[in-house]
Amino acid sequence: MLTHAEPINEIAEAPQVDAPAVEVAQPPVGLKGRTHAVLADAATHYKRSLRASPEAIEYLKGRGLTGEVAAYFGLGYARPTWRDLGDVIAAHDDEAVVSSGLLVLQDGDAEGSRFDRFRGRVMFPIRDRSGAVAGFGGRVLDDSDAPKYLNSPEGVTFRKRELLYGLYEAQEAIEAQGLAVVVEGYMDVVSLTQAGFGNAVAACGTACSSEQIAELLDLAPRLVFCFDGDAAGRRAAARALEAALPFATDENSIEFMFLPSQHDPDSLVRARGLAGFNVQLAQALPLAAFLIDHVSQGCKMEYAEGRARCAYVAGPLWLALPDGEAKQTLLNYCADLLNMQANEMRDFWLSAA
Q: CA-CA distances (angstroms) from residue 145 to 17, 23, 63, 128, 149?
């Protein structure tokens, strides 16, 4: 894990930081391996471009990042030109170049119709568990109309349901401490790591999938989902909850933490430091508690109709839970709401399935 980094005046002068001590597998010579090779060369190109871009350097410094953490994650910069990757592409076969997703192909791929997918963006290399670059996420430097984040397209190396940003860097800390924290943004992962919290990962532009949850719980028994405290964060938490339900066994501790509404992990750790983040982490809700809160949302619990609505919403979620404390807690809660015996509530849900 990267420890607290001293400020570095210029990212362009930052020293190279060793990656985690995980052996990087040598890719095979098939299409997947050749695609990894294209992506690796692009990552090197983007890193060099960052060191030569005062604008991108100032952006990262404005976000409070040091050169050390930028080097640790291999951050780079895609210049705002249409064909900046020409030299990178020329060194590889066309099939692998197309497979990499680095180019946009137009007009039936006619001569001269290709151009760089990433332009004018800070680049975040997304690595697989072996350390190979599988794709990129790119963030714009300003508040233009362009999407804030742009990811590589799905392909032979980039499968967003299976990849987690920062997992390659965080996997040793996650295993050692028995804790993984899933945040929403790549910048959140980088900022937390710089602050001294090396257990954070982020999904690649989508809700956390069952494959990603299974991988994290294979590394650590405690999994915490971290969300902004606004309405969008609550909606994202609901999606994560549904994906996590099949994993809510008594052996796993799955929790949900919500930050103050004006903060995301990046802004919180900059404003309050790691101690402030840890305060919020200590207040994370166990899955069963958040599940009850979730099914109660929008239900007027003071009325019989509202309580019945709550139990109706809870039924499919209860069915998705494995046997264990969380399942029993939800059953007892809804049975009490309707003044029913737990076995009656269970039979009702089973008959309605």
A: 34, 40, 20, 31, 11
pLDDT beyond 50 at 9: no
Question: Does the pLDDT value for residue 171 go beyond 50?
Answer: yes
Which residue type is seen at 258?
F
CATH classification number, 293-352, choose in 1.10.150, 1.20.50, 1.20.120, 2.40.160:
1.20.50
How many angstroms separate the Cα of 31 from the Cα of each of 6, 42, 43, 319? 41, 17, 18, 42
Confidence of residue 144 (pLDDT cuts 50, 70, 90): confident
Burial class of residue 144 (count of CB atoms within 10 Å of its CB; 0-12, 13-18, 19+)? exposed
- Calculate mean pLDDT across residues 174-183: 98
C-alpha gyration radius of the chain: 23
What residues does 307 pair with on adjacent strands?
none
Given CATH 1.20.1250.20, say whether it is the number of domain 164-283. Answer: no
Residue 173, phi then psi, degrees to nearest 5: -65, -40
Q: In the chain, what are the domain boundaries?
A: 11-151, 164-283, 293-352
Q: What is the pLDDT of residue 105?
A: 87
pLDDT tens digit sequence for 185-244: 999 999 999 999 999 999 998 889 999 999 999 999 999 999 988 888 899 999 999 999
Q: Is 189 exposed, middle or buried (0-12, 13-18, 19+ CB in 10 A)?
A: buried
CA atoms within 13 A on the CB side of 146: 16
Residue 11 DSSP class: G
Strand partners, 103: 116
Architecture of the domain whose range is 11-151? Alpha-Beta Complex (3.90)
Pairing of strands 179-183, 200-203: parallel
| Type of residue found at 194 | Q
Give residue 30's pLDDT band: very low, low, confident or very high (50, 70, 90): very high
- Cross-strand pairs, 183: 202
Flag whether pLDDT at 5 surpasses 60: no
